[in-house]
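Hi D.,

Good news: the full-assembly prediction came through. Inputs first.
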Amino acid sequence: MKVVVCVKQIPDPADPGALDPESKTLVRDQKLILDESDSYGVEMALQLVDTAGEGSVHLVSMAPNNEVGGLRTALAMGAESATLISDDALSGSDALGTAKILAAAIARTEPDLVLAATESSDGYTGTVPEMVAELLGLPSVTFAKSVAIDDGTAKVQRQTEAGYDDVDCPLPALVSVTAGVVEPRYPSFKGIMAAKSKPVDEVTCGDLGIDAGSVGWAGAGQEIVSVEDAPAREAGEVIEDEGEAHEAIVAFLEELKVL
Amino acid sequence: MGLEKIWVFGEGNGESVASITLEMLAKARELADTVEVFMAGDGDDYAEELGDHGAAAVHATGDLDGAMQGVAVASAVASAIDGGEVESPDVFFLGTTQDGRDVAARLSVKLDAPVITNVVDVEVDGDAVIGNEPIFGGTVDVKTKNTSGKPGIFLIRPKSFTAESVGGAEADVEDLDVPDLGDAGGAKVTATFAEESDGPKLDEADIVVSGGRGLGEKDAYAMIVDLAKSLGGAAGASRAIVDAGWVPYSQQVGQTGKVVKPTVYIAAGISGATQHLVGMKGSKHIIAINKDPEAPIFAVADLGIIGDVHKVLPKLIEALDR
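Then the structure:
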């Protein structure tokens, strides 16, 4: 079974950077790491291949400056190879532009299953996986909280507003997984060493047969017109608990007349 | 100024219309002459309530027989527009829900139109339709304009607008035929499960008490439930403890969970990650209890208690129950 996992390499959330006031894109000049949201998809893929007894896990990522830091982490977890799409023309791509690139790269590998996170931690549009499915003509299940493969069908529990649905989805298919679907493994030392020599195929828009004008700033059907600091919420009183703090809470609630 | 027509994605439970749909209708009426709803399911179930909230028509697919709403509804809309059965609206509004996102994404590809996500407000400036999206946990506001020349697809966050009954006549029910979906329509829902909880609903409660990693262990969540019960409120949770399997996802407050705007929000053992703040910052009053004085949650709290939830909560529950 061949599984492709879409992974995003993002700035460390502990140091998320800022929007460039000129270009209005996220400044991504610091080292990028594997989006934690994607570690669940990587782990899920490794487990499914393991259960199937055969197959491989391949990564697809789009990132500036031929960045591979996050890919190496996922390779160290056990993925076999990666495709990295890096091209200056991609700067400013919106969700649809990104999906077009990922779909073109995924199509070259003809996977049985495409996994992705439901949303990235930094952009969180939550729309790219489903767009990729549509572009590839695949059935899809989003917000999966459990996934099993049974005789060519993905058996998925999909989160809903009220609880969850059981969904059967024939392969090939795309499934987007939530954090918590599995417990991602930590890369072993051996895995980290092995990852250094695993193949990362670096491609450009041209290699994928994509017109640079249809992606990036040129292709984005949307434009950021302003970036402003939001009115800050004023912080209130902060007290240290010395055994009586609950009384302050009760007094606060009484003042609001909610008791 | 002003748009001709907005289509709002409708969601409902077979009896009543989801709050997010009614919220979007209120905003859509402000911006456009005609507001219509498109949705999966039986339009007759919702026509009266939708009309009352200002929808002139509801385009409904009928029973999807288990097919996913994303592919089915988006395909139905695209083929109705292509076939000239309906006139394309200027703008689509969909809620930031599981199905809302799926429909928006599939529709975006089919119409080659952009999706503008996480929108909390929409304005019209001449011909331009502009969405306002808070980023970095709501500390920065970004405004994004649809420049595609195609209808803009806006994914709206819940609780951004206030639903309003305007006493409109029952909406006209129109069929929205789902074409043959081919392989893309292969996924089928085989069973549906609802997680039951007592008391008021999380996103409707006047008081919400949420717990996070600071509780230390799953069993300690019982304190959150007890406190919520004492206050007649609902119990919520941070993503961290939902991911850890302590509580079901239906109780998650935050970017990927429910958006709540209660009169009082009590965050116990929650540090206040961006993911969480997005879902509760709109609360009228916020009380935070956390051991770490540096926790970001204190920056938005009206009353912050630096302390151990295991010590503060039992005393608080006891005092309230007295």
